[in-house]
Amino acid sequence: MKEITVKNLVLGMLGTNCWFLRNPETGELLIADPADSPEQIIQQAAAMEGTPVAILLTHGHYDHMLAAEAVSKRFGIPVYAHEAEQEVLRDAQKNLSAAWSSPYTMEADRTVKEGDVLTLAGYEIRVMHTPGHTKGSVCYYLPEAGVLLSGDILFCESYGRYDFPTSSGRDLVASVKRLLRELPENVKVYPGHNESTEIGYEKRYNPLA
After folding, report:
1. For residue 6, which of 20, 25, 26 has the smallest C-alpha distance?
2. Rounded to an integer, what distance in angstroms lies between the CA atom of residue 34 and that of residue 20?
3. What pLDDT band is residue 85 in, cutting at 50, 70 and 90?
4. CA separation for the pair 208, 50 (Å, rounded)
5. Model pLDDT for residues 134-149, shown as the tens digit of each residue
6. What residues form DSSP beta bridges with 75?
7. Interior CA angle at 87 toward 36 and 181, to 5°?
8. Which ranges form a coiled coil (predicted)?
9. Residues 38, 14: contact at Cβ < 8 Å?
């Protein structure tokens, strides 16, 4: 198993997890779902002595991306999101900012799709399109490190909401079942909210298992 250092900040009005994944060998750092408070994110990167190389968005809801542009600009790094999620990022109604915060829109610099394999920070990152919470929700799987960034699809003993624009309950159930079926039990799951978990644990205790 390849070493990785994982830390998080809980940010914004909805208590969203912003995850930091650092390669101990190179110092390169991935930032996932920069929810809010860009200065806190920048300070955390410095505290980890990391060199940020990319921002990964699991989906386009405002509580996962409000700091993305500021952090991207500060470090000169690209923002990744699923190709179908550009529609959500560009629409303040669909990304929920218009209703829950102040209207805000953005675009990802680079888009991904099911089956893409990224090489970032010295890790292979497999893109798993897991619609349901939004139509362009993705999970990022780092097989060498045994890590899954699950966004708002899979939570500890729970799963994401499916009553938002572009959501689908049927798709969400299928996405959760896919993760539990395809991934090894020892994979650590780092979700968009609440505490981390493992695939094996969710196979036993998740209501959708």
Report:
1. 20
2. 9
3. very high
4. 37
5. 999 999 999 999 999 9
6. none
7. 80
8. none
9. no
148 in Cβ contact with 190 (< 8 Å): yes
Token digits for 32?
């996932």
Residue 13 has pLDDT above 90, yes or no: no
Q: Kindly tell me if the per-residue pLDDT of 101 is higher than 90.
A: no
Q: Check: CB of residue 193 under 8 Å from CB of residue 12.
A: no
Helical segments of 168-209, H only: 169-182, 199-205
Residues 6 or more apart in contact with residue 159 via CB below 8 angstroms: 153, 172, 176, 206, 207, 208
The pTM score is 0.97
Token pair for 98:
């218009």
pLDDT at 200: 98
Q: Indicate if the pLDDT at residue 99 is higher than 90.
A: no
Tokens 């798709």 belong to which residue?
171
Alpha-carbon distance values, 110 to 57, 68, 78, 85, 183 (Å): 11, 13, 7, 11, 26
